[in-house]
Amino acid sequence: MxxxxxxxGVAIAAVLLGILFLGLGKNPNDIRSPLIGKQAPSFxxxxxxxxxxxxxxTLKGKPVVLNFWATWCAxxxxxxxxxxxxxxxxxxxxxxxxxxxxxxxxxxxxxxQQRGSSYPTVVDDxxxxxxxxxxxxxxxxxxxxxxxxxxxxxxxxxxPDILQANLQKVMR
Amino acid sequence: xxxxxxxxxxxxxxxxxxxxxxxxxxxxxxxxxGTPVTGAQLTRRTNEIGGLLRCPVCQGMSVADSPAEMAVxxxxxxxxxxxxxxxxxxxxxxxxxxxxxxxxLRPKFEGTTTLVWLLPAVALLIGAAVLVVTFRRLGRVPxxxxxxxxxxxxxxxxxxxRDLVSGxxx
Lengths: 172, 170
What we know:
The structure holds two protein chains of two kinds.
Chain A: H1 3-24, E1 44-47, E2 53-55, E3 64-69, H2 74-90, E4 95-101, H3 105-115, E5 121-124, H4 128-132, E6 140-144, E7 150-155, H5 160-170
Parallel strand pairs in A: 3-4, 4-5
Antiparallel strand pairs in A: 1-2, 1-5, 3-6, 6-7
Chain B: H1 2-16, H2 25-29, H3 39-50, H4 69-84, H5 88-99, H6 114-139, H7 156-165
Helix pairs in contact in B: 3-4
């Protein structure tokens, strides 16, 4: 076989394999949000249980942990105690807010009554808020600074370490 | 007096009442720049634009085809934005601003995504060049074609086979 052809073929294959290797090493769900560094989309949604309207804009002045979840999501069950405990720990310096979509209010209330809650949970009826935030699955958590700018986002269940590491970014 | 109190309460509640508000496309892409779409064209355009968006749940499917509730909601959003007069470009930009370029099934021709468009064409050209060169080489007739083909060296085994085949008449 012509050595030049062999060399070129091997070089091309090596480049393609390198790209494939890099790609396979990445988590396909770990997509950086284009909203980081931008003002969080505003919304006013109804709180589960009380019917009170919660306006995100009124929470400016302190960092906000905005957690999208649903009762049918198993990892959401895992992270719920972490969020409840940390919400109590950081109160009143940090506001936690849960947003539930694609769910039923009775199930949400039942979940919160059984597992406890220390912060408001609102319902995003038609998922428009979730779409605006680029939600692909639950749970997904946004960390807003005191000016309402999204400083960080975490996909997947929250652990104490991940939560506190991201809170450091918004509590400066 | 009772009526006055009720009226006062209604007015107070109305003034102080908030309304439900969800993020609107206007926050991301401004006011509609096209004309509202209705009827059969609305359904057709909703499916066309839905076919250009990736379902964030069932990532191999378009929003138009995916049965996931998130995709259904997104398709509903496309439908509504078309009714309000948003253009295809505005609608795609709206979803891109929320989800990033990943949501576009047809990547943009900019930045690193230009590779997605260029690499297949480059690979095709390289492949075609290799084929052309290879076929040209195969088509070349050797300069020694006028000479007699070389004879096989004496082979006792070959001779024996020939004898057997010809019935020992050689």
